[in-house]
Amino acid sequence: MAQTEKKGGLLRKSSASKKPLKEKVVLMYDEIFTTEDPSKCNPRFWEELFLMKVNLEYLEGKLEALDGEELMKIKDNINCLFQHCIQALGEEHPIRVVNALQTLCALIRGVHQKNKSTSGFDIINMLVGFDKAELCMKNLMESLDSLLCAEGSESLKSLCLKLLLCLVTVTDNISQNTILEYVMINSIFEAILQILSSRLSRREHGYDAVVLLALLVNYRKYESVNPYIVKLSIVDDEATLNGMGLVIAQALSEYNRQYKDKEEEHQTGFFSALTNMVGSMFIADADEKISVQTNEAILLALYEAVHLNRNFITVLAQSHPEMGLMTTPTSPVPATPVTPLGTTPPSSDVISSAELPLDADVQTSNLLITFLKYSSIVMQDTKDEHRLHSGKLCLIILTCIAEDQYANAFLHDDNMNFRVNLHRMPMRHRKKAADKNLPCRPLVCAVLDLMVEFIVTHMMKEFPMDLYVRCIQIVHKLLCYQKKCRVRLHYTWRELWSALINLLKFLMSNETVLLAKHNIFTLALMVVNLFNMFITYGDTFLPTPSSYDELYYEIIRMHQNFDNLYSMVLRLSTNAGQWKEPASKVTHALVNIRAIINHFNPKIESYAAVNHISQLSEDQVLEVVRSNYDTLTLKLQDGLDQYERYSEQHKEAAFFKELVRSISINVRKNLAFNTLSQELLLKEFSTIS
C-alpha cells in the first residue's frame, strides 16, 4: 500500500502521478482568499471551518504572500473570519474554541508580517474594520478573560495566554502596537492574578502569565496612564504576590541549575584534564564556554514587581526549601506540553513553607537568594550584550532593594541568617572557595560579597563604567542605612576596602585609555566618598573599635595609591581642560584621607626609629594609630550620607525601551502554538467523538 505524505497542506500518494490533493481546511482557506463571500455557496462554511484542524503554516504563509492591494481586496473576508473566530470562542465545544484561538494567532501574525511598515491603525482595520473594532475587541477580551478564569481546560488557558502574548509582541516596539489600547481598556489583570494565586494554574501557566504582565506594564508607560501599572502597584493579596514570587524564583532557579550542571560537566570534561596537566593558564578561556541563555523577561517581571509594589518586598524574604535540593512531589503530567520563553520551567510548582514541611538537613532559601545567585552568574561575563543587559537590570533591582526601608530591615536582620553560595569567576591568583565553609550570615553580607566580587573581576580594557557606578551606589545606600539605624554589621570590611583601593589603582594605571571613553573622576569621587563615610561615621556602624583601627591601617598601608590619586587629580584640576572641575572635586574629597596619612606616617616612622625596627608588624602600626587619635584633626564633610533616589523615567527610559524590544522579539520567536497536537486535544476533550 502506497504511503501517504503530507506537506504544506497538500496530500499526495508517493506512488501516484496524479495532481496532489489539498486538505479540506486548505481548500476552505483558499475560499476565504477570494473576493466572494465563502458562506454564499455553503451556509455552514464557518461552522465547518472551526471543526477542522488549523494549518497555521499555510494560513500565515498565504497572508504573507499577498501584496497590499490583494490584501485590501479580501479585507471583508478577513474581517469576517476574525469576527467568526471571536464568536466561536463562546461555543460549548472546546475543539472549536481551540481552532478559533489558533486561527486568531495566525491571522494576527500573518497580517502584521504583511503590514510591518504600516501603523497599528491599518492592522486593526485589516483585521476587524474600524467600524466594528471597539465592539469586536471588547468581545474578544471578555471571551479570553472568561476562558482564563473558568475552571475548564488547561489547554484552552494555555492557548489564551499564547494568543495574548502573540497580540502583545506582534510589533518589536510594543508601544507602537495600537491593538494594545483595547487590552488596556478591557483589562485582563484580574485573570492574570487569579492564575498566579492558584497553585494548579500557576504550575501550568504561571510563567506565561508573569511574562505577559511584565510586557503589558511596559506599554506606553511614560506617555499615558497604564492601568496595569496602577493595578500592579496596589496589589496587596498575599497569595497572589507569593504566587508571582514563586514563578519568578522557579525560573531563576532553573537557570541557576542549568548553569551549575554545565559547570560540573565542564569541570569533569576535557578541559579539566588539560588544566590538570599544564596548570591553570587556560582556566579563564575554558570557563567562557559555560553559557546558558539569560532570561531577561522574568528579570523584567521581578524588576516591575519590586519597583512598583512595596508589598512585594516581603515576598523576597519568604522562606522555602532550596529548589535544587528538595524532593519534587509527584504531580499529574500536564495535558499540554508548554514551551516556555527562554527557559524550561521546572515540572512542578515551587513549594512554599506552608505546603511542604522543612527538613532540618535542607538549606532554606528565598527569592532574594535565588536572585543573588542568578546575578552572580550573569554578572561574570559582561562582554556579551544580553548578559550586559541582564547584569545592568540585576544592579537596578538591587538598587531599588537597597533604597527600601523594609528590605533593609530584613537584609540586616541578625535572626535571618543564610548560607549564600555565590558563583565566583575563576581567577589564577585565588583558589575556589569551598561551599561547605560558607558561614550563615544576614543577607546584606551576600549583597556586599556580590558587589566586591564584581569590583574585583571587571577591571579590564572594555571597562563597564555604568555597572561600576551602580555597584558603588548600592554599597553606599546600604552604608547609609547602617549609619542611620546604627546597625553594626559583622562583615569582612577589609575585603571591600581592598577592592576599592585596587579599583582606584586601576583607574590611575589606565588613565589615558579610560579618559578617552569615560569620566573616571565621577567613579573615583564615589569611591573616595565611601572611605570618607567610613572615616566620618564608621564608629556608628563598624562592628568593633578595632574595625575602625583596621580602616586606618588599610589607608596608611596603601597610602601610595591615595598619594598617586592626589597627584593625578591635582595635575588635571590645575590645567584648564574638560576634566578641571570633576578632578578638583576629587582633590577636595581627599582632604581627610590625606590628613590621616600625613598625621600617622611620621608617627609610625618615629616609632620604628626609636625602637630600631626596620619593618613594623600590623599590631605595632595599630598600636601607633590607637595612641595618636587624639591629636588627629579631620574636617566635617557634608552630604556623605545623602543620595539621589532611583528614577526610571528620567534616567533609564532608553534602556528599558531597548530591553523590552529585545524581550518582545525573543518572546515572539519562541512562541509555539502548535505544541497542542490534535490527538492530545481529542483525548482531553473526550466528549467530542
UniProtKB/TrEMBL annotation:
Residues of the Armadillo-like helical domain: 435-671
Keywords assigned by UniProt, alphabetized: Membrane, Transmembrane, Transmembrane helix
Coiled-coil boundaries: none
Domain of life: Eukaryota
Pfam families: ARMH3_C (PF08427)
Cellular component terms (Gene Ontology): cytosol; membrane
Subcellular localization: Membrane
Name of the protein in its database record: ARMD3 protein
Lineage, opening ranks: Eukaryota, Metazoa, Chordata, Craniata, Vertebrata
Gene expressing this chain: Armh3
